[in-house]
């Protein structure tokens, strides 16, 4: 019997949320990593807020990208190891929808906290208060695009021996557009300009990702499971 | 229309023989064309009135850049063919493309840097073309690393094929995002070979060199493809017939 795809997606999302809240350390680790990376910059670059403000978009986005890479490790690996993904693939339901639900949940659990931490870190780097809304919006949208891209490479590395570094090597080049437009939006927010145009581009990447990334991820997971 | 001739490309022994027969032709014509084009580019073509002799770097740089992108496309198409129609030879072809494409990308970056030193006064400039070429190199590296990290050859074929396709979709997006990013920071973008009204004496060596590089790629590709087929089909009986 075929359950409607949206129902399946909802069930998968609920399962992932429940599992995540039983093991909160996995959620907190990438966030801690992000905060620590951001703290290292004043120590290595300069403690002057005026100069840190110039570096803030780069610090925020490189930190966000690295911590989202760290979080990607948790996206499929455990479910692949205990056979859950195999059951998903064999269930006869749409694997694309299931992985889309997993990716969205992953973003809710890692991307959204990251975006919420963004303004705090930005404030520590001397970013003025009116810009913080823009920082939050850009990080929220950008991290969603990063999760979608990351789902493909996480699927591809399922069959590989050493996942970690390889996952970064595959994801980083594909993440360049998100980084460019995200950092640009942040830069504009800091300067007090309108952030609409880079946000449109980030939105376009996210829509493109929603359309194709789950399909590609499902194909990649099937290959990895063979 | 008889399509049997096309199906032969799915058969490893036939492709092996085909590659063996055609390699000298590709290689031979490539060497001749390369020598003629070099003579035309380095001796016959006049020096550029702005860039002087430094523009001659273009005769290696521009064809390398074209090849680096063309080989990526070839690799992605071969990978897609292998993934969709499950043709072993197509996967072998995609695997054979990657290192050659990576080397052409390195050649593009290297000659671009050598050209940049006298022209821009620096080896490295965060020019959109150089930057997207560098990202292309990382895409090649990722492809080869993924292939190397998966033990099961069939799984490696399929996973790296997916990556090649995803990368091919992303190459234009990356390129335009980098162009757009650079437009924010840099006043004028310096372009190489953007003048449409180049003298014919400067143009023909470039076109001939492009042809030579294409043929050279063909020759190296066929050699690598044979090596790839030998490795993959090492337990097949046709190998013994071919090698004795």
Tell me the number of strands of chain B.
Answer: 0
Basic shape of chain B? globular
Q: Please identify the structural class of chain B as seen in this structure.
A: mainly alpha
* CA-based shape of chain A: elongated
* Total tally of structural domains of chain A: 1
Helix/strand/pairing category of chain A: mainly alpha
Number of helices of chain B: 8
Biggest beta sheet attributes of chain B = none
Give the topology, please.
The complex is a heterodimer of chains A (226) and B (244).
Chain A: H1 5-22, H2 25-44, H3 49-81, H4 84-90, H5 95-124, H6 132-156, H7 163-174, H8 176-191, H9 196-225
Chain B: H1 4-7, H2 12-44, H3 58-85, H4 88-120, H5 128-149, H6 153-185, H7 200-232, H8 237-243
What does this structure look like?
The complex is a heterodimer of chains A (226) and B (244). Chain A is an all-alpha fold. Chain A has one domain (5-225). Helix content of chain A is 85%, strand content 0%. Chain A contains nine helices and no strands. Chain A has helices at residues 5-22, 25-44, 49-81, 84-90, 95-124, 132-156, 163-174, 176-191, 196-225. In chain A, helix 6 packs antiparallel against helix 8. Chain A is elongated and about 60 Å long. Chain A starts with a helix and ends with a helix. The relative contact order of chain A is 0.15. The mean pLDDT of chain A is 89. Chain B starts with a helix and ends with a helix. Chain B contains eight helices and no strands. Chain B has a single domain (14-243), classed as Up-down Bundle (Four Helix Bundle (Hemerythrin (Met), subunit A)), CATH 1.20.120. Chain B is 79% helix and 0% strand. Chain B is mostly helical and 244 residues long. Chain B is globular and about 60 Å long. Chain B has helices at residues 4-7, 12-44, 58-85, 88-120, 128-149, 153-185, 200-232, 237-243. The chains are: A mainly alpha (226), B mainly alpha (244). Chain A binds chain B through residues 152-153, 156-157, 159-162, 166, 169-170, 172-174, 176-177, 180-181, 184, 201, 205, 208, 212, 216, 219-220, 223-224, 226, and chain B through 135, 138-139, 141-142, 145-146, 149-152, 154-156, 158-159, 162-163, 165-167, 169-170, 173-174, 177-178, 180-181, 184.
